[in-house]
Fold this sequence. Notes:
With 262 residues, the protein is mostly helical.
Amino acid sequence: MGVSYSTAKWLAPASFVIDFAAQQYGLFSTPNMQDVNDQNLSFWSPQPYFIGAFFFPQQLVQLAWLYRLWKLDPSKAGERAELDMQTHYVPYYVVGNLCIATWMIFWNSSQLKASNVFVTINSLSQLYYIFGLLPPMNTNSTSSVLTHVVAKTFGGIGVLDLLHNTSAGFFKDEVPTTAVKVITGLGFAALSASSDWIFGGCMVYDLLALTVGQSGSWRTLLGAYTVGSAAIVAGKNLARPPYNGPESGYTQSATEELQEHV
């Protein structure tokens, strides 16, 4: 899946605007996002304000990323490599924005099984890109750093969105079974163990949001998972720094291996 630079520079901002407009609809319509959440609580329901608190700074990072997509000149060799990194991610970025915009329409209509289709597509596509296609970060490249932050935060909050919608759509008002507790612990442990600081931080944040959103012994267990996830992320990344350096696995030519898209 690839697009030309000339297409990417229009398609990516357009998808951002569509998603942003859908988020405003979700916030200010009746019922709004939180109304639907409060009517469909389940064992993976986070504290809703955590999603809002994540949304604002993540939008700012996206704007910085989009600004570079427009500003850089593909006719200049140095800037072309920067643009290749960004253009490589654009199809997945666009899919994510359009899926979340569509998800919002179904969510606010309380059609949670339908909305789950779109949140699943978004979350799995972002995870596929992060773990399967995203080149190692070049800390000397602003575009590389921003692309990592945008993709990993998009995928990181996507994990929480998927859990939230799935539980609300199919297990409304249910308490966690032993299987749910085990799946939650093992799933987050596995993702944390394979994460850098950015995506790993998102996993810790997701668990914290779930912890605050739940109650009783389930909240206590989620709190323990949060501490465990933080320990895994910190231990893994301190032992093997994930970015430029002899232990990172990074090679300077990684971004140069991307195919030409113009």
